[in-house]
Amino acid sequence: MKLHTFIFLFIYTSVTCAQSVAILKYNGGGDWYSNPTALANLVKFCNDNIDTNIKENIKTVDVGSIDIFQYPFLHMTGHGNVFFSDDDSENLRKYLISGGFLHIDDNYGMVPYVTKELKKVFPNKELIEIPKTHPIFKTAYDFPNGLPKIHEHDGKAPKAMGVFHKSRLILLFTFESDLGDGWEDQEVHNDTEDVRQKALKMGANIMKYVFVN
Question: Any residues with CB less than 8 A from the CB of 29 and at least 6 apart, and which?
């Protein structure tokens, strides 16, 4: 069996038979493990509110491991440095163009590192701003103004950037928003329920875009 066929079948099986998500572990010293309650809370919210059937046992997977192909959705976060080796970059590129999806949520401070490392993954693709009319802003809940602002850092507007492959959004990079902080247990950041709902609903849109569309 050719490698690309194997990868496609691996992801196809994951998407259709075992809806699972994972946290992406990367090198470089950045705190990939930040927001430890976030993804589990988002999955529970989705299962309870938009009829997904995603496993609530969240795993961690290394960016360079073939295990990433078991998960149609990967979530990556942190505050600082990110480094992808050549092997990491090739593995992630194959995963994404074969049907996988990566959401990178900047917990503040990742932007210069992520943009640099993504050039290794996709030398011939650019991060582009996702228009407010894109389906990801209305799959389950309507966000006519685009990405919501969850945490204030330096007064800048929230941005949703993406990488597309054959018209499909394969990578979403959210920053100046901090969605993951809004997904965490309420007592972690003491966000109001309104703020948490905005974060969770936008997260649900992302999940529905990946698992249903």
Answer: 80, 81, 83
The domain limits of the chain are 3-211
| CATH level 2 (architecture), domain 3-211 | 3-Layer(aba) Sandwich (3.40)
pLDDT digits (tens, 9 = 90+) for 97-110: 999 999 999 999 89
Query: How far is 207 from 213, CA to CA, in rounded Å?
Result: 10
- Exposed/middle/buried for residue 62 (C-beta within 10 Å: 0-12, 13-18, 19+): middle
Distance of CA 181 to the CA centre of its chain: 14
Contact 98, 166 (CB under 8 A): no
Asked if 18 and 105 touch (Cβ cutoff 8 Å), the reply is no
Tokens of 39: 């993804």
Question: How much is the average pLDDT of 162-182?
Answer: 96
- Phi, then psi, of 75 in degrees rounded to 5: -120, 135
